[in-house]
Amino acid sequence: MSTDTGTPVHAMAPVVKLAWLRLSQPEVFAQAKRFVSIKEYVWHSWFGTWEVDFAMASATYLLDVTTRTWYEPALAYAGIRSTALSTLVPVNFARPASDLPFAHALPLADGALCVIGGSDGVLASLAAGATDGRVMVLTLGTSLALRTGHTEPSTDIESRSFCYILDDHRFILGSPSNSGGVVLDWLYRNVLSEDGEGFAERFPTLCAEAGSVEVDGLYCIPYITGERAPIWDETSSAAFVGLKVYHRQPHLMRAAIEGVLFNAYWIAQQLMKQRGKPDRLLVSGKLFQQSWVLAWIANLFELPLATQADMDGATYGAAMLAARRAGLALAAPPLQPLSTKVDAEAAEKIHRRYRQWRELVRKRS
Q1: pLDDT score at 1
Q2: 209 lies in the same domain as 290
Q3: Cystine design at 36: which of 40, 72, 194, 222 (Cβ 3.0–4.6 Å)?
């Protein structure tokens, strides 16, 4: 990882894909005049200019997050020149909406603007108010991510956390994991049911039942699709360790949920080592509708928990940027504290399990 780009090197990184394309399909690569994201393609179709915001560019491994210019060593690795990339602009950059090719069909006010905005994770962090290090966000969907904020670029070679630009004085730090809801979905559809039948009805019930069982020596290493943070090994695999004849479906689901959240805590520890402990943890995802999961994760993280109104954080963050560009004030939705308290005895028990889980992961590495 380069501390200049703020992006971990991984097979998913655009710079790696460009290098692969150059080596494996040189004829296709040679024909390409420009390398852009779908967002840049749409923006160009609207305004006829190739432009990309700093937040989007931050995730390519092609941008120097300190100088805010295209990073020459990465360009050389990919085999491209900066002229094949879009012009870099801030997230509040705007063009007149009257320049849209379909402007005549829209009810536009005089002076209306189109603001270029940012990337989904950066905008969601803005909407969550996680821009100054006081709030850490744990988002659990198909995959999983933890994010927080800082007022200057911050990278860490050991943890390979990302650092994306929000604006002139704010940066979003975090790490992504493959091991989110996909682990639980796979377990239900391929192990605990016949062809995933009854998912909508049975899956939430099974998650609730998982909260009422003790898993003792049963652990789940959740790397069913390889892993990014914290181990950065796309060849890693999943496992259940400690299976006994008396274990049933709720035990397997409980172990899988714990494995996913243990992995999230490992990532959080790395971020906290880098930037310090936040004041609270903001959780987002359907799994956190389970009361036992909230109590369990409060004891694991030993932090107050909060949530926000159900919304698309990235969309709301984009609206916040657009409002500010228009001279309006659109505040982030307020955090809603959750009535969870840390139980010292339960926390110690969970941390003992976490240390054993970490040891099992180490032995498989």
Answers
A1: 43
A2: yes
A3: 40
Concatenate the DSSP letters of all residues of 260-321 into one string: HHHHHHHHHHHHHHHH---SEEEEESGGGGSHHHHHHHHHHHTS-EEE--SS-HHHHHHHHH
Whole-prediction pTM: 0.92
pLDDT of residue 137: 97
State in Å, rounded, how far the first CA of the chain is from the last one.
Answer: 20
| 212: number of Cβ within 10 Å | 9
Residue 232 backbone phi and psi in degrees, to 5: 50, 60
Q: What single-letter DSSP state applies at residue 82?
A: G
Domain count, the chain: 2
Neighbours of 264 (CB within 10 A): 28
What are the backbone angles phi and psi of residue 13, rounded to the nearest 5°? -70, 135
Tracing tokens 């990278």 back to the chain, one arrives at: 155
Is the same domain home to 172 and 86?
no
76's enclosing H/E stretch is helix 72-78
Q: How many residues appear in the chain? A: 365
Q: Which of helix, strand or coil describes residue 133?
A: coil
251, two tokens: 């035990």
Strand segments (E) across 9-161: 51-53, 63-64, 69-70, 87-89, 94-96, 113-115, 135-140, 144-150
- Can you list the residues of the chain whose pLDDT is less than 50? 1
Task: Kindly state whether residue 320 falls inside one of the protein's structural domains.
Answer: yes
Pairing of strands 135-140, 280-284: parallel
Mapped onto helix, strand or coil, the DSSP state of residue 19 is: helix
Tokens linked to 254:
């409980």
* Residue 3, pLDDT score: 60
